[in-house]
């Protein structure tokens, strides 16, 4: 029996990772990729511990109109100048590359309202198919940050769901263009320190797009703390 197996036998046999996120946050996409790397390393270290991820939507900008806003104008107004936008893009691009992601921030035309996209994800979650949820979540991030697609648009969301095998007849109520926006899930700054925000077994938490090494440490500490409790 390997050393990893021996440690696993002395620990709790499960790890639940809660992740607060929004689809317009590039750090959430970057953090998601770092978490995937950390999970691979965790599985090697603790092969007997089952890991579950639970995604918690946080709508950062619920006041964005249903049809969205021009992205470039929105961010220049938000950050104060074109130079500030350029510097932020450079910062995000470099951080993304460290996680193996190539983003096309210049290709984003619309700042969407993410309520409808989060509602779509919630309906997929209700289907009880975690793999479909993860595939759609990844596809939504890629659609926005790599392909410049409008993830606030109902027709676009229908197409993205179909791309990952979620058929429209199961999600008709969530993806009809006239269904209206789902109730907003506003950021609760009293509970979390921004997004992405990771919580491990309800015992350890990390804020921000932390690298895989730090996430792995927190995951390991969480299962050890759960076993002790």
UniProtKB/TrEMBL annotation:
Keyword Acetylation on entry: no
Stored Pfam families: DSBA
Domain DSBA-like thioredoxin, chain residue ranges per copy: 17-215
CDD domains found in the cross-reference section: DsbA_FrnE
Molecular function per GO: isomerase activity
Keyword Isomerase found: yes
UniProt entry keywords in alphabetical sequence: Isomerase
Domain of life from the UniProt record: Bacteria
PANTHER family: GLUTATHIONE S-TRANSFERASE KAPPA (PTHR13887), THIOREDOXIN SUPERFAMILY PROTEIN (PTHR13887:SF41)
Protein name: DsbA family dithiol-disulfide isomerase
Species of the source: Agrilutibacter niabensis
């Amino acid at each position: 029996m390997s050393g990893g197996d021996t440690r696993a036998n002395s620990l709790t046999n499960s790890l639940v990772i809660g992740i607060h996120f929004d689809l317009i946050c590039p750090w959430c996409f970057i953090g998601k990729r770092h978490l995937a790397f950390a999970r691979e390393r965790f599985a090697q270290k603790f092969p007997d511990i089952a890991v579950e991820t639970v995604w918690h939507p946080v709508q950062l900008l619920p006041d964005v109109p249903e049809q969205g806003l021009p992205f470039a104008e929105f961010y220049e107004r938000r950050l104060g100048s074109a130079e500030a936008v350029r510097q932020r893009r450079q910062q995000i691009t470099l951080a993304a590359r460290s996680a193996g992601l190539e983003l096309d921030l210049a290709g984003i035309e619309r700042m969407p309202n993410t309520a409808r996209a989060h509602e779509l994800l919630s309906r997929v979650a209700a289907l009880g198919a975690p793999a479909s949820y993860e595939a759609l979540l990844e596809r939504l991030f890629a659609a926005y940050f790599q392909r410049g697609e409008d993830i606030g648009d109902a027709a676009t969301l229908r197409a993205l769901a179909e791309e990952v095998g979620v058929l429209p007849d199961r999600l008709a109520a969530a993806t009809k263009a006239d269904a209206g926006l789902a109730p907003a899930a506003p950021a609760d700054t009293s509970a979390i320190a921004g997004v992405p925000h990771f919580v491990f077994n309800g015992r350890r938490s990390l804020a921000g797009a932390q690298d895989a090494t730090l996430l792995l440490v927190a995951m390991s500490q969480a299962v050890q703390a759960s076993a002790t409790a």
